[in-house]
Design a protein that fits this description.
With 154 residues, this protein is mostly helical. It has one domain. Helices cover 76% and strands 0% of the residues. The longest helix is centred in the N-terminal third of the chain and has 27 residues. The two termini are 16 Å apart.
């Protein structure tokens, strides 16, 4: 149980750091001038949600609940890993890639389809960019969880 929680915390931390490096640094920018907000093809509705309509998303003004929530998702993902990993080929990398794929397809691909595409009318090229960010995030989390879970303890 303890190892699963530690793996989840590592996964949550990896997810937060990868989001910081992708969405925050490149996508939205530290000054609000990232490609997802400044691209001329971007949906005005999405830009308004992130920059104008009050209250702004928590992650913009009060990110701590989101950071902590992602840590909890990491713990949940680690418990999922624990329940399915024995059916996957042995080894950190094969299991990490399967976990990353599971996270990406079950969470992030669904999110992009349902919210930015469906609700905000975001154009497909920017959704493709966001999906590449999500691949990085899912991979970071999957590797962190698999690495902790597959380590042999003395």
């Amino acid at each position: 149980m303890k190892k699963t929680i530690v793996a989840g915390l590592a996964g949550g931390m990896a997810m937060n750091l990868a989001m910081l490096l992708t969405f925050r640094t490149l996508g939205f920018g530290w000054d609000g001038k990232g490609i997802l907000l400044t691209s001329p093809m971007q949906s005005h509705k999405l830009i308004a949600v992130w920059t104008e309509i009050q209250p702004l998303p928590l992650v913009v003004n009060t990110p701590l609940p989101i950071i902590l929530g992602l840590m909890l998702f990491g713990i949940g993902h680690a418990f999922i890993y624990r329940s399915v990993a024995s059916a996957w080929p042995a080894g950190v990398l094969p299991r990490a890639m399967r976990m990353s794929g599971l996270i990406f397809f079950m969470t992030f691909l669904f999110w992009e389809f349902f919210t930015p595409f469906n609700q905000f009318g975001e154009p497909l090229p920017l959704i493709a960019l966001e999906l590449s960010f999500w691949v990085v995030i899912a991979t970071a989390e999957g590797i962190a969880i698999a690495w902790v879970m597959e380590r042999r303890t003395a």
